[in-house]
Design a protein that fits this description.
17% helix; alpha+beta; DNA-binding; 195 residues; 5 helices
DNA sequence: TTCAGGATGTACT
DNA sequence: GTACATCCTGAAC
């Protein structure tokens, strides 16, 4: 399966957000790989988006990563407890990114992910735990062992990257983003995509 | 199955 | 001091 190259990320943020759906997030882990299918994303576009940390090109130590070249991982702490994973998009200097909101574990990856999330093996998961394994941005980071130490990581490398399995496009749902009620007019931008 | 409330720490004002 | 791109728990239905 081909790995996505920098050209993929160096494009319009909303195109990237939609095309990431159905592709596979790959994380090197314990000598092997954790592989998850991407099912929900959101776009954030700093030049015009009050929901983006780098709105109006605001540079701070935290947002510096958003100005890096496309194909960089932007990872930050939210609500004091959870990490969120983003893919930086568009040319260097444009603070834009795609937030990964939800993924699905492949069968072979379920055991280590269940251990990361609940400290048990996959066979011990309740149906409730299985349903809530990776269906949120904080959950998928916890499940895949991703945290702020990986902020700025190159997504073209071996630690963390995306595989294109060549699956045909399926219908994509479009709607408002979640958890950004403070963002005034940007609250209504239809920049959330899911399968 | 849904809902309210609390946890928790960093960034920024 | 305030706000935050969230998640979990427990209680009510």
């Amino acid at each position: 399966m081909p790995k996505l190259e920098r050209d993929f990320y160096n494009r319009d943020t909303l195109d990237v957000a939609q095309e990431l759906l159905g592709k596979y997030l790959v994380r090197r882990w314990d000598g092997g790989w954790l592989v998850c299918r991407i099912t929900e994303t959101e776009g954030y576009i700093g030049r015009m988006d009050k929901a983006c940390h780098a709105y109006n090109y605001k540079r701070t130590p935290r947002t510096e990563t958003l100005f890096a070249c496309a194909g960089t991982a932007y990872i930050y702490l939210i609500y004091g407890r959870y990490d969120c994973l983003n893919m930086v998009t568009e040319p260097e200097g444009e603070p834009c990114a795609v937030l990964l909101r939800a993924v699905e574990a492949t069968e072979a990856s379920k055991d280590p992910i269940a251990r990361n999330r609940y400290g048990i093996c996959a066979a011990e998961l309740s149906t409730y735990q299985e349903k809530n394994l990776l269906n949120g941005p904080g959950k998928l980071c916890r499940g895949l062992g991703i945290n702020r130490k990986q902020n700025g990581l190159d997504l073209i490398g071996d630690e963390l990257f995306i595989w294109d399995a060549g699956e045909p496009p399926t219908p994509i749902h479009v709607g408002k983003r979640i958890g950004i009620d403070y963002a005034e007019e940007a609250v209504h931008f239809p920049w959330r995509f899911w399968l």
